[in-house]
Amino acid sequence: MAKALVVDDSKTIRTILARTLKEIGFEVLEAANGREALEVIEAEKTTVPLILLDWDMPEMNGLDLLKRLRETPEFSSMVVVMVTAQNDLDHIGEALEAGANEYVMKPFTKDVLVGKLELTGIQL
Amino acid sequence: MQSQASVAEIRPENYRFLQEHVYSQVGIVLEEDKHYLFECRLAPIVRQLGLNTIDDLCTFLKGNCQTEVGRQVVEAMTTNETYFFRDPAQYEAIRSVLLPRLMEERQQTKKLRFWSAAASTGQEAYSLAMLLIAQGLSDWDVRILGTDFSSQVLERARSGKYQQIEVNRGLPASLLVKHFRQSGTEWQLSEPVRRMVSFETIDLRNSMHGLGPFDLVFCRNVMIYFDAGTKKSILEELHRTMFGGAWLLLGGVETAFGVDEWFERQTVQNATVYVAR
Questions:
Q1: Are B106 and B20 found together in one domain?
Q2: Given an 8 Å threshold on Cβ–Cβ distance, is B173 in contact with A111?
Q3: CATH fold for domain A3-112
Q4: How many CB pairs under 8 A join A and B?
Q5: Structural domain contains residue B151
Q6: Interchain contact, B173 vs A103, CB within 8 Å
Q7: Could you report the per-residue pLDDT of A52-105, keeping only the tens digit for each?
Q8: Is the pLDDT of residue B29 over 70?
Q9: Same domain, residue pair B94 and B227
Q10: Residue-averaged pLDDT of chain B
């Protein structure tokens, strides 16, 4: 079973995202901010092909984590989908520029999330 | 035939009745601002039953909730909402196979014509426009016609304005950034995309004289509303508007019943397409 990492400082959002990912066959790991996520990723090495990533989080935000991942050859091919309430064009453009594969604006439905995952080409 | 406005008439208590009907049958909550959806989804059923308005349909339904019509109403209200790049396999087939073939065939004229025959709020026509722009057809004469029987939905389509929930669904973020601008709570499609598409109110059951010829026609999720005879005559009319060898794309759940006389079914990549004989 492929692993996915959900990174969001809201426990509620993590639970909702995790439930959807489990329904479509992922084993789900969770982290509450970018720093925690980095620890999980480094521990798991390349076995996490998918990350759902919030933007505003304490300690290390989503964009900084995304940039760190894209700068690290070992992790650069991970599929990263931003799932965030930063719903303006500047933020979306900045995330894509930094290497995000897709962008989901909050609020969202399960259909939206699954559709965006399909767009990334990740095996579902 | 009734005007669109009269078909679409719906009293507040009937709006609530329809919300409750759909909720009781499938548990889906339809919000307060879905009048356009009721119009474009339910008007075909109203006509099929020989009724005049959606209010008449509600009166009929109140005594016959658990009937085929009750089921059709639920299905109409819950399964066909349009969104950008709905059925990605069809767009991938266009991008990778159908369009390259068309470009080769039309190299001399550099002219391509497309039709989104049940355009609703425009996402299908605009998705195609964005796909075509990405293929570098800037020196080609490319036009997309979007039609629907509902002038109300076409007004929305023409505006090119969409809510966040609509651009969040199916539309790649890269295309959102490239082709949309934010305007308050709405997302406005850019002029280059909008210029490729024009919209007209057309009832598919009437003559399609003067339309076409088209290279590719989308006619998705509308045949399901018609009986076999009407469907057959629509397919025949559609065929008349198309070049020989042009492609017809139907909705994923629509059967090809009656289509064989005019079209040959083919599988392209993972999509089913119908080639005009």
A1: no
A2: no
A3: Rossmann fold (3.40.50)
A4: 36
A5: yes
A6: yes
A7: 999 999 999 999 999 999 999 999 889 999 999 999 999 999 999 999 999 999
A8: no
A9: yes
A10: 87
On whether residue B83 sits in a domain, the answer given is no
Q: Are B144 and B125 spatial neighbours (Cβ–Cβ below 8 Å)?
A: yes
Nearest CB among A92, A108, A111 relative to B176 is that of A92
Nearest chain A Cα distance for residue B185, angstroms = 10
Q: B179: nearest CA in chain A?
A: A89
Identity of the residue in B164, B170, B177 whose CB atom sits nearest the CB atom of A115: B170
The structure tokens listed for A80 are: 């990263």
Q: Which helix (H) or strand (E) holds B183?
A: strand B180-183
Q: What is the pLDDT of residues B194-227, one digit of tens each?
A: 999 999 999 888 888 899 999 999 999 887 666 7
User: What torsion do the CA atoms of B6, B227, B205, B159 make, to the nearest 10 degrees?
Assistant: 60
Tell me the nearest-neighbour CA distance from B164 into chain A, angstroms.
8
What is the pLDDT, as a whole number, of residue A14?
Answer: 95
Please tell me what DSSP assigns to residue B98. I
* ipTM metric: 0.94
- A51-65, B54-68, B69-83, B241-255, range with the lowest pLDDT: B69-83
Which among B78, B110, B127 is the end of a domain? B78
Which residue do the tokens 């599988």 mark?
Answer: B267
Return the residue matching tokens 């991938």.
Answer: B92
Interface with B, mutate which of A84, A86, A96 (most B CBs under 10 A): A96
